[in-house]
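Hi P.,

Sorry for the delay on this. The queue was packed all week, but I finally got your sequence through. Input first:
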Amino acid sequence: MHICKKKCNFAAVFEKMDKPIVILAIESSCDDTSSAVIVDGVLRSNVIASQKVHEEYGGVVPELASRAHQQNILPVVDTALKRAGVSKDDLSAIAFTRGPGLLGSLLVGTSFAKGLALSLNIPIIDVNHLQGHVLAHFVEDGTGLPHPTFPFLCLLVSGGNSQIVLVRAYNDMEIIGQTIDDAAGEAFDKCAKVLGLPYPGGPWIDKLAKEGDAGKYLFAKPNIPNYDYSFSGHKTSFLYTLRDMLKAHDVTTIDELAERVPHLREDMCASLQATVVDILMRKLKKAAKDLGVSQVAVAGGVSANSALRQAFVDYGKKYHWEVFIPPFSFTTDNAAMVCQAGYFKYLDRDFCAIDEVPYAKTQI
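Then the structure:
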């Protein structure tokens, strides 16, 4: 866990604790610019501006991402404040994603948060992006969704991370298992690209898988010790299967192969998705059994995958877990989760020094 070494002294902030606690949050770790507002623990707004420019490149281009953040951040923050019905003068603190992520993108959000906080003489709160995903389960958004109690296990899966996290408290998280190479979301995106599907590939895998046969193709399931994952061998198995099919049908492109093999993309996506979900859930089941934990959550971008969400429901019934699945609006990068983490830290007066800088990589 990343911990700020220096903290600011904002004693004046707490002289008027009778006022509502209003936290503004900024998320800019990758290619989504987002801002949210929480008032006394209740989410009032969560605004996200996505960047379509990366689709033609088949992946996020860091320089383009940071430029788009510069264009989006002011209108996104302004919209979040207006939807929440508050002004900047009502703010108690500003939370921001400090890392991990793309440094250029993080610098935009960090600089904006610092500048606005200095102008208002209020504290800033740095948030670990991965912790934010876990804490999305505690956002009070008015829907009445139940929240997990500590301790619980969280399967954190995204394009860059596949981790099993033991959550003892909002500020006490331990990674007990993680991928040793590729992440599950990365495997989805890369395999989707090979199939000629648009970026991001994960949603397309999910969509086509619903029309395919999950048992049509068998892909490797690497046997990694303990609770760790590996998806590089699985991805290679997928590529070799396609290679052999191209050779067997004497064609050179996926489109040509799809003309000769009915439902090729649908069946490949269904088989790929079923294998990834099975790999994820088997390790999670082992961790839950070994640790005696019956509350299990899922978080991160891949938690939007319909097969993974259904697997959580099925495993919950079979193994008597109490499962927690986030709303779709909290699966991708969003400021609501950053705001929730910031609210918890505000209550603990855990502020960040103004001279702290973003970081690209860190553990949870």
